[in-house]
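Tokens for Potassium transporter. Go.
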Amino acid sequence: MGLLPQQLMSAVGGLKVGVAAIEQDEVVMISVTFLVILFSVQKFGTSQVGLAVGPALFIWFCSLAGIGIYNLIKYDASVLRAFNPVHIYLYFKRNSVNAWYALGGCLLCATGSEAMFADLCYFSVRSIQLTFVFLVLPCLLLGYLGQAAYLTGNLNGAEKHPFFLSIPSGIFWPVLLIANIAALIASRAMTTATFSCIKQSSNLGCFPRLKIIHTSKRLMGQIYIPVINWFLLVGCLVLVCSMSSINEIGNAYGIAELGVMMMTTILVTIVMLLIWRLNIIIVLSFVVFFLGLELTFFSSVLWSVTDGSWVILVFAVIMFVIMYIWNYGSKLKYETEVERKLPMDLMREIGCNLGTIRAPGIGLLYNELAKGVPAIFGHFITTLPAIHSMVVFVCIKYVPVPVVPQNERFFFRRVCPKSYHLFRCIARYGYKDVRKENHQAFEQLLIESLEKLIRREAQQRQLESDGDEDADSEEDTSFSRVLIDPNGSVYSLGVPLLAEFRGSSNSISEASISEELNPNSPASPSISDAEHSLERELSFIRQAKESGVVYLLGHGDIRARKDSWFIKKLVINYFYAFLRKNCRRGIANLSVPHSHLIQVGMTYMV
């Protein structure tokens, strides 16, 4: 958040060089206007930004290099001796403590260039690596060397805006325009990167669910999060209006940048140890060099905490607390639901009527568990006087593909024996799928997918001479493995497309042909019984559909027990409850008439 106002105010600050009458207040107001426009157009997507990002930034970096070369030739080319590391030692020897303070400013010379890595949704990794090495780095070096050469002969007041003062007067206004365009592009890229970080955190269960809008059908990384967009706008406006100078914003951004660098080094070290399994000497050498260098710079910027860096520290603490509380509460809730799901032995004991009256109709029970019978279903059957004759446990999953074909939308498995009429359904949606579909079309598609499951089971039973009672009594474990395992087909290939059943379908077709050629085979009587059983179950499903479909929404919640610690009560009963109440629910996009909707809440004491 500190980089956005810093970039804009630095670019807009060039007006003070071109127009002497402009004061700092006018610079702040223009920056505020640019910020409002920038965040207002963010919702229109970034699909076409890639066409403008490359040429604009190329012109900007070439301008930096050209101006730098011009200043080196005109003023003092001897600044090239700065590449000699001996001058670092001499500088510290002459200035001691002041040189240590200056390290923070040296860091800011390199920061900001990493914003180009936020454009990974537009360009490949290799292209960005090559661009950084052969374009960005040389142009930045030439630009800063040119400014140093200019300052050697112009020390009176030039240190405030050395770049804009060093621009030749004939090209000042074009360069100022390019600088502002580049600042807007970089700010937009950082905003997109923030959206991506929030989305990844949400997927990992470390941030409350928010409304995410995908602005591209081809690239999954191009997203827009309205809440975060306006939150960033407010934060940037407060930062720009409350801080009196660009130096304070730079101090705030410097400490944030160093925090990110140190955290990245620590994470890479963990990867080197646990995943790459490199030699411990190599790992220690990496940690000592990079982390030692970063800690040195970090110690330099700590003195500026009172000059603006405290804003970033407060913001970081708030974000950490939100993420920790959400992760802790969500993990505790999920573990409690898994632990208290109804065992299959209990389901067998209460019988196919589930200990209550089975009324005609279909009940779609939405829950977050992909395996087992959720505890909230037990709450339904013990609270309500009747339950539907057929119940489907629906779990919504999002897969990393733009659109899931309609014929592959649902993935069914049977729960308990056939007489229970309980099914498990995974409804899969891509990131560009429209969830607010007509509920009647949704129900029709769901019933058709369920009928396919029934027919497929009947065909499989024809091929099994001995039968398999266990296959009908419990859920197929491979079903849950496909949906939960991150290396499974749903997450690595997008949509499984029922490939696991095609082989069996081919075998079924061959068996059917063989039976037609040999009608007197011993299997013929059992086929007739299976056909009657199939027709009865299909007829049962159609009658249940005609009786009506009701959506049963179960809202599970957690509360700390009375004997829990005070901190746990505070976190669970207040902070996590507040976040859960205001986050986006997984079934927020259901387009269901209120007359077909039943919501039941259940509280777990943890």
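Residues 301 and 578 are 36 Å apart (CA to CA).
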